[in-house]
Amino acid sequence: MPFHYIPIASRLHDSGSLSGYLARYKVALQETGGRPAEGTVTGSAFFLILTGGTEQEVLRRYHSCQQQGQPGSLLMIAHSAHNSLPAAMEILAQVRQEGGSGRIYLLRGPDDFTTLDQIRQTALCLEANRRLSEDRLGRVGESSDWLVASSHLAEIVFARFGLRIISIAMEDLRARIAREPVPETGPEYAIWERAAGVEGITRETFTPTVRIYRALKELITVHKLSGVTLRCFDLVLQDRTTGCLALSRLADEGITAGCEGDIPSVVLLRWLWHLTRNSGWMANPADVNVLTGEVLLAHCTVPLSLTDDYHLQTHFESGLGIGIAGTLKPGPVTLLRLGGKQLDQWWGAEGQLAGYPHGGQHCRTQALIQIPSAGARNLLEAPLGNHLVLIPGHVREMFAEAFQLNLAQRPIQKGFARPGPGG
Questions:
Q1: What are phi and psi of 250, to 5 degrees?
Q2: What fold, for 3-133?
Q3: What is the dihedral of CA 279, 191, 361, 293, to 10 degrees?
C-alpha cells in the first residue's frame, strides 16, 4: 500500500554521513510502499525522524495539521542511531500530554521486516479509512422495527466516518421491480444452475428474486452507491418474495450488501471490504456457549464467494421466496460488531470454523464458530446489537488499528470512544 513520509533532520548533524547511513532505510521504506513527501503537510503522512533535535519542527508540523482541520495520530518512524528514538519519544510524550495520540515505529535495521510490516498495515488502515469516508451507502426502506440499537441516523454515520447514508423509499424499489421485464434467462440464473441442491422451490420462485437484484443494481447506479442495506422483510410480508439472492450476488460483485436496514453492520461490512478486499457474512448469533466458546451463526443469505457449496431453499421464517443454505469454506475467521450510541464501540474475536449444522430451527446458512470463551461471554454480558459480521482470516488486530486511527481523525465530541468488552 503506497504511503508518504516526511523526513525531518536537525541542521546540526553532518548531512553527508547521515545520508550514507540512512540510504538503506530509505530503500527499505520504498520497497514497503513509502515515498518521501518533502515539505508536505498532511494528516496521514508518517514522519521519518532522522536525527535528534527535531522535536520542535515535528510538533510545529503536527500542530499545523491540527489547525488546518486534519486531526489524526502522529505516526513517527525512528531508527536506532543519531538520537532518532529519543527525539521520537520526547515528541510522543508531548503529544499525549496535549491529549493527542501517536505511535513510534522503531526500525532496528533496514531488514527489520516486522516493523516494516507494521508500517505497511498502518498505511493500509489509513487508506481504508479514507476510502470509507468517500462511500455512499443506500438504506432502502427504513431500518427494521426490531433493530432498536442498530438504526443510527445518517448524521451520526457522517460525523463518525465521513460516509453518506442515502435514504431510498421502498416504493422506489418496487416501482423499478415492476418495470423490470420478467426474466427468463440471464447471468443470475447461474446461481440456480450451480446449486448443489434445490429444495422446496421452483424456477418460478427464483424469477422474482432476479427482478429484485436488477432493480437494486439500477438504484445503485442511479444513486452512485457502493453498498446498500435493505428492509428486506417488507418484501416478504407485502410481496411474498425475498432479497436474499440479490444481496448475495451484490456482495460477490464487491457491492456491500446488508440486511434489514442494519446501519452498523453495513458500515462494518464496507470497512472490512476496504481492509481485506473480502466480502463479509452478516449473521445472527443464534446460540452462544460461554463454557466452550462456540457461537452458532445463522442467516438466510451469504456471499457465495465465502462458500464451498450451497443449496437453494425457501426463506426460513416465512417459507417464501429464496433462501441460501451455504457451506462456508473452512479456516480462520474473525467475528466483529460495531455499535454504541455514536458507533464508538466495537467487539471482536478471532476463531475457527468448527462445524456446519443444518438445524431446522434456524436460518438457512449455519456455521459453528470456535472463539475464546471470554469473547463469547462478552457477547452476552455487553452486546452491541443483534447481528455479527464474519470475515475470513484473523484480522482483529488490523481492525482495532483502523478503528483507533479513525477515532483520532474523527474524535467523538462527547465522551470517550472505547472498544467494546471484546475489543
A1: -60, -45
A2: Rossmann fold (3.40.50)
A3: -30
User: Could you give the CA distance from residue 17 to residue 346 in angstroms, rounded to a whole number?
Assistant: 48
Task: Select from 96, 123, 136 the least CA-distant residue to 4.
Answer: 123
CA angle 280, 390, 250 (to 5 degrees): 20
- Are 402 and 346 in contact by the 8 Å Cβ rule? The answer is no
Cα distances (angstroms) measured from residue 177 to each of 49, 182, 217, 224, 416: 58, 9, 11, 19, 45
Q: What is the pTM of this model?
A: 0.92
DSSP 238: I
Sign of CA dihedral 405, 406, 409, 411: negative
CB-based contact 166:138 (threshold 8 Å)? yes
Comparing CA positions, the residue from 288, 231, 257, 289 lying closest to residue 389 is: 257
Query: Sign of the C-alpha dihedral, residues 269, 275, 278, 283?
Result: negative
504511503: which residue's cell?
A: 3
- Report how far residue 44's alpha carbon sits from residue 133's, in angstroms, rounded to the nearest whole number: 14
pLDDT of the residue at 417 = 39
| Ramachandran bin of 53, using left for φ above 0, alpha for ψ from -120 to 50, beta for the remaining angles | left
Handedness of CA 257, 261, 264, 267 (dihedral sign): positive
Output b/e per residue, 122-145; b: 16+ Cβ within 10 A: bbbbbbbbebbbebebbbbbebbe
Grid coordinates belonging to 351? 476463531
How far is 219 from 80, CA to CA, in rounded Å?
Answer: 55
Place of cell 514522519: 47
Helix (H, G, I), strand (E, B) or coil at 265: helix
pLDDT value for 421? 42
Q: Which residues of the chain have pLDDT under 70?
A: 13-14, 17, 38-43, 236-237, 316, 319, 413-423
The structural domains of the chain, with segments of one domain joined by +, span 3-133, 136-409
Could you tell me which residues are beta bridge partners of residue 332? 352
CA dihedral 230, 232, 233, 235 (to 10 degrees): 120
Written as one string, the DSSP assignment of 153-183 is: -HHHHHHHHS-EEEEE-HHHHHHHHHHS---
Helices and strands (H, E) in the chain, number of each type: 13, 18
Longest dimension (CA), the chain: 80
Q: How far apart are CA 75 and CA 65, in angstroms?
A: 13
User: How long is the chain?
Assistant: 423
